[in-house]
Amino acid sequence: MESQTALNFSYCSDPKFNLNVLKKNTEEKCDICLLVEFKPVRYGEFIVKKYKSTETLRCHYFCLLSATCIPQRGQPSAGITGFLIRDIIDSFREFRDKRCVYCCHPSAAIKCCHEGCDRWFHYICGYKNACLTQFCGAHNSFCDQHLPEEYANPPETKHVACEICFEPLPWATDAKYSPVAIVKTCRDDECPPGLMHRECVQQFAFSAGYHFKCPCCFSKKYIKNAQQHGIFVPSRDASWEREPGAFKDLHKRSCTAADCSLASTKAANDVSKMVGCSVCGGQLMHKVCTQLEDPFTYLCKACKDESFIKLL
């Protein structure tokens, strides 16, 4: 499944980080991988950080998180989400001359964590060549030849649809098949088995933040499982809670329908005849104004536009 190029989510643009996050395609190179790519769902947001008044550091956020030689020693508001600018710049000498095992270009910042493996690669090249970075713990990365054992036996995907977008999953026999491009659900006793596109899960994680959960059993314990399978889950409120004025109508008791059918009646402000959005609880509307057979399934426009809504 192709990732979106429009940035409809943002983690690093949180004011507490004091960062500039590009929201459209750019021809600027990432100072870590030295590559020009703009696919935020795949490679993380493209960050521009000013320092020393005249200097600028640019990078893909996932290049920063996955780099083997860059420590995260600062407070969240320092440098780039805790990665100090001096540490980032000092790390360049550790990997600038390392050539990517996939594209052969220099500045490969990731070393496979498998004991005895000396393969280095760019995060972008790793993504395209079935490598894995775990976004938890030590942020270990694995080249395609040393993936965790569970990837040795790919799941059966023939005639199987993604649990999020409902589009077909790639078959293991496809020439471009990547075992890490498929993410499993919890798979515990209470969770029905399911498979998803990695990009669908990542998009859901960006949207859901703290509310991220297994799409099949809705368990929040799924976060660690997803992180171990290459999904970055931001520590922040869900995107639908960060919309301007997201809660402005919670104190109101009036129908938000554009053409309320009860506006001129005594029932205009009767809460018992209203229903809130089934996801966010806001944007009250008279049951009759929803024009739905089951008004309790009503979704406000903001929630309906979210990609995660297909999970419900």
TrEMBL record:
Pfam families assigned to the protein according to its UniProt record, in alphabetical order: zf-HC5HC2H
Origin superkingdom: Eukaryota
GO CC terms in record: nucleus
InterPro entries reported for this sequence: PHD-type_Zinc_Finger, Znf_FYVE_PHD, Znf_RING/FYVE/PHD
Name of the molecule in the record: PHD-type domain-containing protein
Organism of derivation: Anopheles atroparvus (European mosquito)
Lineage: Eukaryota, Metazoa, Ecdysozoa, Arthropoda, Hexapoda
